[in-house]
Design a protein that fits this description.
heterodimer, A: 340 residues, alpha/beta, Nucleotidyltransferase, domain 5, 2 domains, five-stranded mixed sheet, 10 helices, 41% helix, B: 218 residues, globular
Chain lengths: 340, 218
């Protein structure tokens, strides 16, 4: 193997998914594997942080071995290790970071802390057709809802974010209100397909005033009140909720694009897998002559491939940890990142 | 032979490297978080001995019980170091490491180990005849009745002094007694001597406290 090739191992363990990826400067993404804990947490109706950590410590090492074997590589072929240091669940982050840092230390190669949301934000770069900087990023997941002005790698300005529930969280909570099984977001979206869009009209929160912040907790309450009054109209309520959230997100994306004058929008995070949202944003793209990019479905949710990529782009520019301290940052703003 | 021993399961961060120079060790007490210490301490001992991780023949570690995050940090670090160079690992109960150390120090084979498990409980174990038995999570008023010939050790004896003493019948106890990685080295060497080489393949934690979440009523 040429010495110029740089291969990065990425480790993701910030919440309820253990993800490992391998990214090569020569071949791009060469292997990735994921273990989802969804079944483990389902009977608790949500992610239990201690159980998440307990599972990560069992899964990470076998997954690293599996990814290496898939790529037909040895650990000695790895040039750097990137791991999710935050934001996320402290205990879960600590598992990935302790394994990543000690592995890098033992191999005597550089390691790097990756911002989980930067991983999501750069995930569309894993695809063949890639967005070019600058762009507006809509990051939508169970833990985050934000619009980011992306001028380049590490050059991020948060244009707006949720003041309460993240959009994915609102999906899950509303699904729970409707008695749908965990994880509720995809179940709610599936139920909404059978609903009548004209039956109920839910509010589009914070769209009647300027600004790019979001608020979804009121929408969840609106769904609860409607369900109490019309308990036999679950599908129609699911539809009204989904339409209200996707249109709210679309309205804010339009504002962000008009404000920045950018012609590219990227959408990432678990909720970016939602087909209604994609339809709404594609329509917006056509209308504004804006290119809209998404990661492939499997990279919408948490994964190791995006961490390998995000870390790789920094490691090849010489970014790395200078201490051997095992570092996590459960609370970490995108705006604190160093530009590449 | 080069053996690395690591413990971060309790309020101690402890590292020991066994080589032909004997044991080169670091032991720091009162640690709130071992995350900032463990690898720098490893760095120190390796550099003092003049070897690198790939020269290791084995890793001994405490696998718990203890503070959940401390236990997982210990396991995570051992997983990472061992994976890098395919180094065999051997895990020991934190209670065994404390019991073994106390038996050696006080020259007795009757040790009752109690580590403070918080939430009004202790991690409990008896170290007798070079073996750990009765490893469990208990209320302090639910421990074995033992008698005066036992010595009590571990932080549980500080947190629940009176109840433990009354219930166990032990009046001689040292709360200020912690796991030491140097003792992990001895345990590793004894084990290899008695049973030959061993590798637990995937280091995993022992928690003892497993009731950590309530199931949804729905």
């Amino acid at each position: 193997m040429s010495t110029k090739v740089f291969i990065t191992l990425g480790i993701e363990s910030s919440c309820d998914e253990t993800g490992i990826g391998l990214y090569s400067s020569e071949k791009g993404l060469i292997a990735h594997q994921l273990f989802s804990q969804v079944e483990l947490h389902a009977e608790y109706g949500g992610v239990v942080p201690e159980l998440a950590s307990r599972d990560h410590i069992q899964r990470t090492l076998p997954l690293i071995k599996a990814v290496l074997s898939e790529a037909e590589l040895q650990l000695s072929d790895i040039n750097g290790i990137a791991y999710t240091a935050g934001p996320g669940l402290a205990g879960a982050l600590l598992v990935g970071s302790s394994i990543a840092k000690s592995l890098a230390w033992s191999l005597d190669i550089p390691s790097l802390a990756v911002h989980h949301m930067e991983g999501h934000l750069l995930a569309p770069l894993l695809e063949e057709t890639q967005p070019e900087f600058p762009f507006v990023a809509l990051l939508v997941s169970g833990g985050h809802t934000m619009l980011v002005d992306v001028k380049g790698i590490g050059k991020y300005k948060i244009l707006g974010e949720s003041l309460d529930d993240a959009v994915g969280e609102a999906f899950d909570k509303t699904a729970k209100i409707l008695g749908l099984s965990y994880p509720g977001g995809p179940a709610l979206a599936a139920l909404a397909e059978q609903g009548d869009e004209t039956r109920f009209k839910f509010p589009r929160p914070m769209t009647d005033r300027p600004g790019l912040d979001f608020s979804f907790s009121g929408l969840k309450t609106f769904a609860r009140n409607t369900f109490a009054k019309y308990p036999n109209e679950k599908a129609n309520i699911a539809k009204a909720f989904e339409v209200a959230t996707t249109q709210t997100l679309m309205i804010k994306c339009r504002r962000a694009l008009e404000q920045t004058h950018y012609s590219t929008l990227i959408v990432a995070g678990g909720v970016s897998a939602n087909q209604s949202l994609r339809k709404e944003l594609n329509k917006l793209g056509k209308k504004l002559a804006v290119n809209v990019f998404y990661p492939r479905q499997e990279f919408c949710t948490d994964n190791g491939a995006m961490i390998a990529l995000a870390g790789h782009l920094r490691l090849i520019k010489g970014h790395k940890f200078i201490t051997n301290k095992i570092t996590i940052k459960p609370r970490w703003s995108l705006e604190e990142l160093e530009a590449v | 032979m080069h053996i690395l021993a690591i413990d971060t399961c309790t309020e101690v961060c402890s590292v020991s490297l066994y080589s032909n120079q004997g044991k080169t060790s670091r032991f720091i007490k009162g640690v709130e978080k071992s995350s900032g210490l463990i690898l720098p301490l490893c760095d120190e001992v390796f550099s003092e001995v003049g070897i690198t991780p790939k020269d290791l023949d084995g890793i001994a570690y405490t696998k718990g019980p203890g503070a959940f995050t401390g236990v997982r940090m210990c396991i995570g670090v051992v997983q990472g170091i061992s994976l890098a160079h395919d180094i065999p690992t051997m895990g020991f109960s934190t209670l065994e490491v404390v019991g073994f150390g106390a038996a050696k120090k006080f020259n007795t084979d009757k040790i009752a180990v109690a580590l403070d498990a918080r939430m009004g409980e202790v991690y409990w174990g008896l170290y007798q005849d070079q073996k750990l038995t009765n490893e469990s999570l208990r209320k302090p008023d639910d421990v074995n009745t033992l008698g005066q010939d036992f010595i009590g050790v571990g932080t549980g004896w500080g947190a629940h002094e009176q109840v433990l003493s009354e219930r166990s019948g032990i009046s001689n106890y040292k709360a200020n007694f912690y796991p030491k990685s140097e003792n992990l080295i001895d345990l590793y060497l004894i084990h290899v001597n008695e049973n030959g080489n061993f590798d637990d393949k995937l280091p995993l934690p022992t928690y003892l406290r497993n009731n950590v979440a309530h199931k949804s009523l729905k």
